[in-house]
Amino acid sequence: MAGAYDDRDGFIWMDGALVPWRDAKVHILTHALHYASSVFEGERCYAGKIFKSREHSARLIESGRLLDMPIPYSVDQIEEAKYAMLKANGWTDAYVRAVAWRGSGEDMGVSARRNPVRLAVAGWEWGAYYGDAKWQGAKLDIAKWKRPSPETIPTAAKAAGLYMICTMSKHAAEAKGCSDALFMDYRGYVAEATGANVFFVKNGEVHTPLADAFLNGITRQTIIAMLKDMGIVVHERHIMPEELPTFSECWLTGTAAEVTPVGQIGDFHFQVGDLTRNVSDSYERLVRS
């Protein structure tokens, strides 16, 4: 499937029914467009099965709760919607995007309690998020923006508004010939990339930033559990940027990124080593098991 995302054949599940792709629209006065009242999930379907599907549906509902935006669907109903969308489009391998938002209604201001909360599930066929970097090692810029304090935003929510600095940082990175950008948090600790968590290797042990100021990704949690099952020591801790040259390997994790090796962050270089390849291969087997 190719072309603009608003002009394709296929079906999108929207508010309880499958609708033709081009008819899945919202009004210009939709609250989410003006005030970022929107949460979403990104998921991958492998051979007809969405990996960690129920965990994603549960997180979507929790994200809505954190934004004071109760989603009027259960996990079971969201699961049915996702698989109905896949079946209608004839896909067994695809990216799945569930999104909930405050629609247009009686309110058009910061407060929007009288506006309906809506839900849609779309999907598309998608390959490696970072292209050739999936195998060669991605090159990352260091973002000028920082992940804010949990006292300023609900960091546990996968909310659309939190991605504003991600878009700006990724654009700046791409202009420099990089695939992505690495954020520090408001304290100066290493945080995450624009849409993926980050892991480092030193002396055979793995170090990953403590998820206390950014989203604790489902893929991140999966990889940590996998590493522990492999007998690899994992340190979840605050990492200072001056530690970057002390690490030998680095990779990113996320539903879209899967496990993507990193070859460079700023002026610091990493090898695509044995542990990185082992983790990537193990994850590939897991998602298709």
Strand content: 25-35%
Mean pLDDT, rounded to whole units? 95
CATH class of the largest domain: Alpha Beta
Give a short account of the largest sheet: 9 strands, mixed
CATH architecture of the largest domain: Alpha-Beta Barrel
What form results from the Cα inertia axes? globular
CATH level-four homologous superfamily name of the largest domain? D-amino Acid Aminotransferase, subunit A, domain 2
- Computed CA radius of gyration, to the nearest angstrom: 19 Å
Q: How many DSSP-defined strands?
A: 15
Low-confidence stretches: none
Taken in chain order, the helices and strands follow as EEHEEHHEEHEHEEEEHEEEEH
Alpha plus pi helix count: 7
State the helicity in percent bands. Answer: 25-40%
Spell out the key features of this protein:
2 domains; single chain; 15 strands; D-amino Acid Aminotransferase, Chain A, domain 1; 6-stranded antiparallel beta sheet; about 290 residues; about 25% helix; D-amino Acid Aminotransferase, Chain A, domain 2; alpha+beta; 9-stranded mixed beta sheet; globular; 7 helices
Explain the layout of strands and helices:
Elements: E1 11-14, E2 17-20, H1 31-35, E3 38-46, E4 49-50, H2 53-66, H3 75-89, E5 94-102, E6 117-124, H4 133-136, E7 138-147, H5 164-175, E8 180-185, E9 190-193, E10 197-202, E11 205-209, H6 218-229, E12 234-237, E13 249-254, E14 258-265, E15 268-269, H7 274-287
Parallel strand pairs: 7-8, 7-14, 11-12
Antiparallel strand pairs: 1-2, 1-6, 3-4, 3-5, 5-6, 8-9, 10-11, 10-13, 13-14, 14-15
Helix pairs in contact: 2-3
